[in-house]
Design a protein that fits this description.
Mean pLDDT: 87
Largest sheet: 2 strands, antiparallel
Radius of gyration: 15 Å
Order of helices and strands: EEHHH
CATH class: Mainly Alpha
Number of helices: 3
Low-confidence stretches: none
Bound molecules: FE2/S2 (inorganic) cluster
Strand order of the largest sheet: 1-2
CATH topology: Arc Repressor Mutant, subunit A
CATH superfamily: BFD-like [2Fe-2S]-binding domain
Number of strands: 2
Shape: globular
Number of domains: 1
């Protein structure tokens, strides 16, 4: 069974996009486009690529930690 492509221009499947998100811990679209190739040509698939990213990115750690001084 052949994979269904999210990005038909560059032949990138949803599975490949998810793999890149997890491997590189990607949190924003431009990085995902750069590393996966999805969305790098006509851009028509970018809304779908963004929704896959939104559903699969890792939680960004809260960098505003409070320091308690004693
Ligand atoms: S369909 Fe993804 S860049 Fe064209």
């Amino acid at each position: 069974m052949s994979p269904s492509y999210i990005c038909s221009c560059n032949g990138v499947s949803e599975q490949e996009i998810k793999r890149v998100i997890a491997k590189r811990q990607i949190v924003e679209l431009q990085s995902l486009i750069m590393f996966s190739g999805a969305g790098a040509s006509c851009g028509r698939c970018r809304p779908k690529v963004q929704s896959i990213l939104d559903a699969n990115r890792l939680a960004v750690p809260n960098l505003q930690t409070k320091i308690k001084w004693e």
